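Following up on my earlier thread - several people asked me to post the actual chain instead of describing it. Fair enough. Here it is, all 453 residues.
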Amino acid sequence: MTENAEKRRRKALSTSRTIVLVFTAVIALGTLLLLLPVSSRDGCCCGFKTALFTATSSTCVTGLVLCDTWSQWSGFGQFVILALIEIGGLGFMSLASVVIFMTRRKISFQQRILIAESISTDGNGGVMRVQRKLLIGSLLIELAGVIILFIRFLPEFGFSRALKLGIFHSVSAFCNAGFDIMGFKTPGGSLEYFANDPVVLITLSLLIIIGGLGFVVWDDMTAKRKPKNWSVYTKLVLCTTAALILSGWLLNCLFEWNNPGTMGNMSVSGKLLSGFFQSVTLRTAGFATIDQGSLTQAGKALSCIYMLIGGSSGSTAGGLKTVTFVVLVLFLRSRIKGRNSVDVFKRRIDQDQVMNALVLAIVLAALAFTGGLFVSATSGVEFTDALFETVSALGTVGLTTGITAALSLPSHIMLILFMFFGRVGLLTICIGFLRGNYVEKKYSYATTNLLIG
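Reply from S.P.:
Thanks for posting it. Predicted structure:
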């Protein structure tokens, strides 16, 4: 490599650093806009902490808030939040590609790599085709959600408010953000007002599920109409998503059926609907139709597990990701059966990918546990609620037991960092896994035997 080439290489930002810097810039811009008096409903500056927390939560499509979105923010402030959600959900490279499409400019190889990695494709071939599908498909799905919700809201709220509610909640659901503007009905109550409304909840559930499948899955399913031709990854995503939703539905109903603080006073149909929606929203969506603070201890533990798993790679969702989780399950099964390889759908999963999944799981679990200890120690709340809060931030979910606003400043700072890491940090780590070149040692030590278990 020549000296000039080496200088250019040193000056060039890595892909991971670019992603971090751009997301940081978006959050900074959002914070500045939310600090403007015009962004607040009362015309007064909301304060730096509230603006930064909200901008981070919006861009990282989390949904944790220090104040009710409707009560605190004006129409302009809500528009800023919605824009940040769309950017964070679809990815900054998706929006950049819009300009490329409109101006018909040629894009560089490095730009193709960035776009490919931002939507978790495994190469640069056909990146722009996938990206075009992504944008058009996303907008059409969001539009369908807007139309259904608008028709449902129109008789009760009138044309302008129904349209606003339809747009905001369709985008928020599809991007798995969990922000709502129903505070004029139940301040801080999320979607509790619609706990028995199948049209609203099923529509939002479908938007959440579709948004959480991932862009690669969409492309595979539309390009290959027959299920037998779908990739192993697509099959794993669909099977795992269905299994998690159904098992979560069953377990939520089992744990909360007679709990008067959540589902106990509902009709049978209401309980089934709430149990289903709770299972779906735990997949990093963050909407709530029942009081999360009143969940049983078993219900909170279940919620933490499902929030940590999250959605699928390359989607609007966060968390460990569905395929990463199922790889761990398959690895455990193979070890229990005494097998060295991890197999699924008559294919063998590469050992490096299994180890990468294990590393991600350990990192997330360790962060969640230590974060829960930190919040509990610095804010004086029960560990269960503190763990629920940190897992919600780390998995970019947004559900809360109601303690967010009452936490201490150190806890708020930690939640901001967790939301950022949950959305951006995991992405950059995964890119490192995809692009990393493992160095082989020139030597090896003698093996030793240990007692395991």
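The longest strand covers residues 342-344. That should answer part of your original question.
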